[in-house]
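Mods, move this if it's the wrong board.
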Amino acid sequence: MKATAKAHTNIALIKYWGKRNEPIILPTNSNLSLTLDGFSTVTTVHFQEELSSDEFFLNDRLVEDAASQRVTGFLDKVRAMAGKEMYARIHSLNHVPTAAGFASSASGFAALAAASTKAIGLELNDTELSILTRQGSGSACRSIYGGFVEWQMGEKEDGSDSYAVPIASKDHWDIRVAAVVLSATEKKVSSRDGMRRTVETSPFYDGWLKQTPKDLEEIKTAIHDKDFEKTGSIAEANCMRMHATTLGANPPFTYWQDTTMRVMQNVQQMREEGIPAYFTIDAGPNVKVLYLPKDESKVKQRLEQIMGVEDVIVSKPGKGISYL
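Not the wrong board. Structure tokens:
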């Protein structure tokens, strides 16, 4: 009753920002991501008769705070599905900065879902695994697959039609993403709290919901056609609209730092100089820059020279869940 799984994180090109049902994590809009090979989580789950509670180790340290409670709450769902009441020892190695806008929960819960269901004897197909994973972390349902992935919001209140589907494999298109690391510290407003505050109080949120389906359809066409300029411009505009909703929240907040702005300005300047590059930012200060392989050395060198940038980590399109 032991299994190990590896999952990669993903970057949302069309953002997931807001829930219509928080307990089972149903989004207010369909969204789209690219799975990245540069960031991953490897998780081993071992169900054992002698344990009296779950034990969660993250990067070899025992975790006993709210993060541990989230893991136990998720495993309760797995146990209920399997009809078993055994507790587990979980060892998770996270090769992603935690709670800094690098979607650590996406790879974390995808790996946890895959390892725990396999260890307890459940045989789930990818759709079923995506539905289950979604209930641990929304964005994690997209990390079941590699390449470009759409999370369909669905319409049913039980969440049975809200899951991720692959729209293009990791080998479809060789584009690159540079993750610009500005701060590895935890953000002051979590994604969960930020979403809730925005949905409940931002007057800009309705406009976001109206525009996002249009962005989604257009970017899917652009990805299919391998139109980099169109893909990048849609992703960048969608990102800016998402962050605008946080400025309209009450009280207003932003995930950006001074260096975030400097990176954004440098990316825009690169385009003016003839280097096609576009940025996107999740719920954190760090910036991800999309570019083509031929421009890698120029883009990486430019980003590394920006004051306040700690590191630049290059990714290619990554694969989905794997079992080790």
